[in-house]
Design brief:
single chain; alpha/beta; Rossmann fold; 6-stranded mixed sheet; 4-stranded antiparallel sheet; 10 helices; binds adenosine-5'-triphosphate; binds magnesium ion
């Protein structure tokens, strides 16, 4: 596992053998620049939290990590993003395969209008990951178990996913992401639609998942960032202002803007 280097601060966001990197990343929505020269390393099997005021570019940056911005008209991206040292914007990259390696969980739980079983089976089916119904059953069960949902749904796998509670739906979406065995999971405010109990469950789950996956989570809750992440990156006006170990960012931020944000002076 990669260790965070001593210099992983404002000026030098690098770590030894990162899972993913962004280098001099700029993004424009037509003429409006939303990201400015972002340099960030994502450490393998850790949770990296992205924090910062509304509109600072957190979701935009997160979407760059699995090329979700490709689907938005008028977007121009320059700079480099790598996964295991390979440029994910290289023209030879298969974006469908890439998104299987880098899964995503959205703010609002978005189960498909299908059964619980079929939601989780969806990815393995379209990616041709299984040869038999038994194998598929196995993946569905393991994924639901990993997402901490199996106990609650095992007797109603054929029921519509939309009949689950919000917190259960979000864990189902996590199970769906996990089912294709991704290496990285991106989460954009995954708890913002959940009550405190469901939030606590999802946070627990994130903590467990990090033994197998590399996780990047956008959150507006500094408590949540402090609870679930090992590294925190603070964005402001499209720039990555500061990144470091979560404890350091919250107890001893180097930049005045970070200090201002975490003490609630703006944002
Ligand atoms: N599809 C889009 N088209 C044009 N501009 C966009 C688009 N998405 C985001 N932007 C702009 O890019 C900037 C960054 O937006 P982004 O959604 O990344 O911020 P954020 O940090 O995730 O904010 P929030 O905390 O409110 O979710 C904002 O100025 C926003 O208006
Ligand atoms: Mg956002």
């Amino acid at each position: 596992m990669a260790a965070v280097s001593q210099s992983a601060m404002t000026a030098e966001p690098s770590v030894a053998s990162p899972k993913m990197t962004a280098r001099d990343l700029n993004l424009f929505y037509s003429d409006n620049q939303a990201l400015f020269d972002v340099n960030l390393d994502i450490v393998e099997r850790q949770v990296t939290a992205l924090i910062g005021p509304s509109g600072c570019g957190k979701s935009t940056f997160l979407r760059c990590l699995n090329r979700m911005n490709d689907t938005i008209d008028g977007v121009t991206i320059n700079g480099k993003v790598t996964l295991d040292n390979r440029d994910i914007y290289d023209k030879h990259i298969d974006v469908v395969q890439l998104r299987a390696r880098i899964g995503m969980v959205f703010q609002k739980p978005n189960p498909f209008p299908k059964s619980i079983y079929d939601n989780v089976a969806y990815g393995p089916r379209i990616h041709g990951l299984v040869n038999s119904r038994d194998e598929l059953d196995e993946i569905v069960m393991t994924s639901l178990e990993r997402a901490g949902l199996l106990k609650e749904v095992k007797d109603r796998l054929q029921s519509p996913a939309t009949g689950l509670s919000g917190g259960q739906q979000q864990r189902l979406c996590i199970a769906r992401a996990v089912a294709v065995s991704p290496e990285v999971i991106l989460m954009d405010e995954p708890c913002s639609a959940l009550d405190p109990i469901a939030t606590a469950k999802v946070e627990e789950l994130i903590d467990e998942l990090r033994s197998n996956y590399t996780i990047v989570i956008v959150t507006h809750s500094m408590q949540q960032a402090a609870r679930v992440s090992q590294r925190t990156a603070f964005f402001h006006l499209g720039k990555l202002v500061e990144v470091g170990e979560t404890d350091q960012i919250f107890t001893n931020p180097k930049d005045e803007r970070t200090k201002g944000y975490i003490t609630g002076r703006f944002g």
